[in-house]
């Protein structure tokens, strides 16, 4: 199906778009390396680079491979997952403020994780899960995120006002948080402390097994996102038009639901609920490329999401200090101005992607 004549808007030439992709790719690699260079322990960049290629058994190599490299990889994949899930939700709901954190999808994933950690165990932490247990944790997050996605979609089919859906999403997230709070009340002290720290968001506490599950899950979500590019473009025109073009709307919606749940749920399961990246990055990408074509927005969100999350990770480390900020605080400071800008823009102009 070809909907480009009706909906795809290109504000830049093909040459400029290619140049932008090159610049974003270069920035991502540069920031990834910068994330390896910075940390609570001061290490010369030359020593970091040498440790990546020479196994001399030094403490520097241990720091790089055990702590900095896994955290840098995590930040890139978390940024990719949240950005793509936000892009898909904004397209599917036709709502510029849709995102896994604001509409409660991350809260649904958190509830799934809480049921496993707090509900079925006492004194068992997420870091205690190994092997198959990591998959139990992430699948529970997928189920929780998917359930909330279906509920929000049901509401949005009956309520068209963007702000009303946003308020209902916030209320739903609050309700789910209340359920988790009750579970926390009856949990052990050690589990409660670990869970509260988890809710602040962290990129540096993943075990090698958890990082492997995260990479596999997000990679699967990226693949599905690429496969559904044409479907996402068609959804921009509405479900009725998509059906008239011969697309199986119900099946396509289910696939996108599953993809969003996998992406947002995987991040929440291991890194906690990380806010505002899913809302902010898709809008940043649309303004950079001045296009609504998902063939451009999907790879653009992959690169920009990795960049923004890596920057957030660098800032959270407070370079030159031994203190580390909760990653959720940094992403909120980055994302909230973008959300305010979206609201002010849509106050004078109808939402369109």
How are the SSEs ordered, and which strands pair?
Elements: H1 14-37, H2 45-53, H3 59-93, H4 105-119, H5 132-156, H6 162-185, H7 189-199, H8 208-227, H9 229-235, H10 239-244, H11 249-271, H12 277-289, H13 294-316, H14 327-348
Helix pairs in contact: 1-3, 1-13, 2-3, 3-8, 3-11, 3-12, 3-13, 4-5, 4-6, 4-7, 4-11, 5-11, 8-11, 12-13, 12-14, 13-14
What portion of residues belong to β-strands?
A: under 5%
End-to-end Cα distance = 19 Å
List low-pLDDT spans.
1-6, 122-127
Element order, helices and strands? HHHHHHHHHHHHHH
| Structural class assignment | mainly alpha
Q: Specify the biggest β-sheet.
A: none
Count of individual beta strands: 0
Helix content: over 70%
- Number of H- or I-type helical stretches: 14
Mean pLDDT reading: 83
Taken from the alpha-carbon principal axes, the silhouette is globular
As a whole number of angstroms, the C-alpha radius of gyration is: 20 Å
């Amino acid at each position: 199906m070809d909907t480009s004549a009706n909906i795809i808007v290109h504000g830049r030439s093909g040459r400029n778009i290619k140049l932008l992709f090159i610049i974003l790719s270069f920035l991502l690699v540069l920031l990834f390396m910068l994330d390896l260079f910075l940390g609570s322990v001061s290490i010369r960049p030359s020593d970091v680079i040498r440790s990546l290629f020479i196994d001399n058994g030094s403490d520097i190599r241990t720091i790089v491979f055990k702590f900095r490299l896994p955290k840098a990889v995590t930040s890139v994949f978390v940024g990719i997952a949240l950005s793509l899930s936000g892009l898909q939700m904004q397209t599917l709901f036709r709502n510029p403020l849709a995102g896994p954190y604001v509409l409660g999808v991350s809260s649904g994933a958190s509830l799934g994780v809480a049921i496993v950690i707090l509900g079925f165990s006492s004194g068992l932490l997420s870091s205690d899960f190994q092997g198959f247990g990591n998959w139990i944790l992430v699948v529970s997050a997928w189920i929780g995120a998917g359930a909330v996605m279906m509920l929000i979609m049901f509401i949005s089919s009956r309520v068209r006002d963007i702000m009303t859906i946003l308020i209902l999403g916030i209320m739903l997230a609050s309700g789910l948080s209340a359920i988790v709070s009750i579970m926390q009340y009856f949990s052990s002290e050690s589990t409660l402390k670990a869970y509260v720290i988890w809710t602040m968001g962290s990129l540096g506490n993943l075990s090698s097994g958890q990082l492997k599950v995260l990479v596999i899950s997000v990679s699967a979500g990226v693949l599905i996102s690429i496969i559904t590019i044409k479907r996402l473009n068609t959804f921009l025109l509405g479900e009725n038009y998509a059906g008239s073009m011969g697309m199986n709307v119900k099946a396509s919606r289910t696939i996108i639901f599953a993809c969003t749940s996998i992406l947002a749920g995987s991040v929440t399961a291991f890194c906690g609920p990380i806010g505002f990246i899913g809302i902010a990055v898709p809008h940043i990408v649309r303004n950079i490329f001045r296009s609504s074509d998902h063939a451009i927005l999907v790879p653009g969100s992959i690169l920009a999401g990795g960049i923004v999350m890596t920057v957030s990770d660098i800032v959270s480390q407070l370079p030159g200090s031994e203190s580390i900020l909760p990653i959720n605080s940094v992403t909120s400071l980055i994302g909230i101005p973008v959300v305010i800008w979206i609201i002010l823009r849509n106050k004078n102009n109808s939402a369109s992607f």
